[in-house]
Amino acid sequence: WLCKYILRNPVKARLVEHPAEWSYSSASEYYGSTKAEITDTGDVLSCFKTLDEFKSFIDKKEDDFDYGIFE
Question: Is 59 helix (H, G, I), strand (E, B) or coil?
């Protein structure tokens, strides 16, 4: 949840429409659109079955998210 909170902050603040658009964020590395290799994405991504599952988790707004996946 911390990663989601951090990556979505620029979106919530209406600075960008998508987390990967914020140039000061590691989101573009997680989404695969940048290969800066500054961020160790392995630990976070290992919590998800696929990259698409991670993207879906981050892209869903908090009020739209199905918390049942953690049960």
Answer: helix
